[in-house]
């Protein structure tokens, strides 16, 4: 009896395996993907490219410490797949706004990846008080011409905050001598980086002993640059239509107070939520504007939110 039961169990196991193999063979495919959407998952060691650089300044991978730290960030960001896919999606939406501003100021294009690690390309809020895609502190914003108060906070204006980031980075480069150190200073401050260089008697970021956050900072930027530039090499599969795109807008000038943004939005065929989505720098449901300053509000073209 036991022999018969074992035989039946074995036959059942073979049948189950057969069904599983058959299911894999007949797994559904997407019309645009070459490979089948099957339930398999593999983790691979990564081949680190030999020529990684930031803003044209090479990462010294011949140094074993630098190699290990670079490997860590590539692994962490490759296998955090959900976050990675979101970065690809948001980059398609926001890089076209950031890139021409960097070019206008002569800041290397690689700095758009600094915005990725600062905020994930969202209007993030830090415990220290930094705000927006570029994580600008209130004092830095005001020093560079941004309005920052409870009614209006232009750190949430992507175009204006990108310009502030450019100004900061240019000054840091002039003071510290390299774009790599300028990027580190964006995290730790010009004075902080200068002091560490002086105390440790070195001139390069990769020779500095730094705290956890600033010590990982450049490696994270370079890792995101490498992955976002070469998605297939790191296992990311998507179609162009999977990525986010900007809704076309036009600008409306406002040089008076606005008492009710709900009614204001309705004049343009949208609601208050949509108005805020496109103008996150408006922090209250009204605009004080006692000085009669000129503001430009982004209004989405007709038909996108109907």
UniProtKB/TrEMBL annotation:
Residue stretches spanning the membrane: none
Keyword vocabulary terms for this entry: Signal
Keyword set includes Repressor: no
Domain Transglycosylase SLT: 104-205
Secretion signal span: 1-23
Signal recorded as keyword: yes
InterPro entries (alphabetical): Lysozyme-like_dom_sf, Transglycosylase_SLT_dom_1
Top-level taxonomic group: Bacteria
Family, similarity comment: Belongs to the transglycosylase Slt family.
Name of the protein: Transglycosylase SLT domain-containing protein
Provenance organism: Algibacter pectinivorans
Lineage of the species this protein comes from: Bacteria, Pseudomonadati, Bacteroidota, Flavobacteriia, Flavobacteriales
């Amino acid at each position: 009896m036991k022999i018969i039961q074992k035989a039946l169990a074995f036959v059942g196991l073979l049948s189950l395996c057969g069904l599983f193999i058959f299911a894999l063979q007949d797994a559904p495919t997407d019309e645009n993907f070459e490979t089948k959407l099957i339930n398999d998952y593999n983790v691979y060691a990564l081949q680190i490219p030999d020529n990684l650089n930031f803003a044209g300044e090479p990462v010294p991978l011949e140094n074993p410490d630098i190699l290990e730290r670079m490997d860590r960030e590539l692994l962490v960001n490759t296998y955090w797949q959900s976050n990675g896919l979101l970065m690809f999606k948001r980059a398609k939406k926001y890089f076209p706004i950031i890139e021409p501003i960097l070019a206008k100021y002569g800041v290397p294009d690689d700095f758009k990846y600094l915005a990725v690690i600062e905020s994930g390309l969202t209007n993030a809020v830090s415990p220290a008080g930094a705000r927006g895609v570029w994580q600008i502190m209130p004092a830095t914003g005001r020093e560079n011409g941004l309005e920052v108060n409870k009614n209006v906070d232009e750190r949430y204006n992507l175009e204006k905050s990108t310009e502030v980031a450019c100004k900061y980075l240019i000054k840091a480069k002039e003071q510290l001598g390299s774009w790599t150190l300028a990027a580190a200073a964006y995290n730790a401050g010009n004075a902080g980086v200068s002091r560490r260089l002086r105390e440790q008697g070195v001139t390069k970021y990769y020779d500095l002993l730094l705290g956890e956050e600033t010590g990982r900072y450049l490696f994270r930027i370079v890792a995101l640059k490498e992955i976002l530039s070469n998605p297939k090499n790191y296992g990311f599969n998507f179609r162009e239509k999977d990525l986010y795109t900007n809704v076309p807008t036009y600008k409306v000038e406002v040089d008076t107070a606005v008492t009710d943004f709900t009614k204001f939005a309705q004049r343009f065929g949208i609601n208050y939520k949509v108005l805020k989505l496109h103008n996150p720098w408006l922090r209250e449901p009204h605009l004080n504007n006692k000085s009669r300053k000129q503001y430009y509000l982004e209004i989405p073209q007709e038909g996108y939110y109907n």
